[in-house]
Amino acid sequence: MPPIPDYASITTGIIDSHAHLLKEYFADEQFEMIERAFASNVRQIVNPGINATSLDELFEIADKYEHIYLGVGVHPHEANTWSQSVEDKLKSSLAHKKVVAVGECGLDFFYNHSTREEQIHALRRQIELSLEFGKPLIIHCRDAWADIDTIFSDYKGKLKGVFHCYTGDLNVLKNLAQFDFYISFSGIVTFPNAKPIQEAARHVDIERLLVETDCPYLAPQAVRGQRNEPSYVWYVAEKLAELRQTSIDQIAAACTANARTLFKLPELAR
Ligand SMILES: [Zn+2]
Ligand SMILES: [Zn+2]
């Protein structure tokens, strides 16, 4: 285990806005991993949904940990599992108070684990759920910005959410400014070859900025190749502070406030 950066003195703490915490990734270390996150001054965590079958475990985790919330959704890789019964299961879960978002959902034309048509259908259904339940969208988008643009334009001015694990460049970012969305950066922004993403990270409006790990994948450069976990979100914040020539305190304060606004998370006493 490499040492986790010590940012215990930062009064706002930080929020990992996107961390997959399922047992299948962490096995018998799941509890220790969550404890390490809170010990490292991560205050709240959003654990997004990926499919209907793992939903029960997401609720178990959220029941056990007051400061862990969940999203309910089907990942674009799993869009081929979409069915009426999946939609009904999502629907029956969405009103729960610890469910803070619909997602993650979206389009991934890089891996194409589900067909383009399956992905678009599942995304459109989840957009409808987001509108019906008044909960923001967690959007996963890889190599599909033009399609996101087309689909979103059918719902002009109505959608809210976050583009998680942002991998677009500055031009894409400028186009996304038309939407009421946040932009969340993961460990990818710390990779030396991620210059276009870093350029975008310099320009995101501070009031739209979020940080995440997207663990267990995409560990930041300092711990690259290892299993990622929420305590490593500090490495992402460090990089954003460096890129934007500001302090990590400011990045942490902004990202914490932004995550609470988007997901309607409670303020916490220190
Ligand atoms: Zn994703
Ligand atoms: Zn994810």
Strand content: 15-25%
Distance between the termini: 27 Å
Helix/strand order, N-terminal first: EHHEHEHEHEHEHEHEHH
For the biggest sheet, the summary is: 8 strands, parallel
The helical percent reads 25-40%
Global shape: globular
Helix segment tally: 10
* Helix-strand makeup class: alpha/beta
List the ions, cofactors and other small molecules found in this model: zinc ion
Mean pLDDT: 96
Low-confidence region ranges: none
The radius of gyration computed from the alpha-carbon positions, rounded to a whole number of angstroms, is 17 Å
| Order of strands in the sheet with most strands | 1-2-3-4-5-6-7-8
- The tally of strands reads 8
Structure description:
With 270 residues, the protein is an alpha/beta fold. It contains ten helices and eight strands. It has an eight-stranded parallel sheet with strand order 1-2-3-4-5-6-7-8. Helix 6 links the parallel strand 5 (137-142) and strand 6. The longest helix is centred in the middle third of the chain and has 18 residues, at 116-133. The chain is globular and about 45 Å long. The model has no long low-confidence stretch (mean pLDDT 96). Residues 18, 20, 48, 104, 214 line the site of one zinc ion.
Give a brief description.
By secondary structure, the protein is α/β, with parallel strands linked by helices.
Q: What descriptive keywords fit this protein?
A:
270 residues, alpha/beta, 8-stranded parallel sheet, 10 helices, 8 strands, binds zinc ion
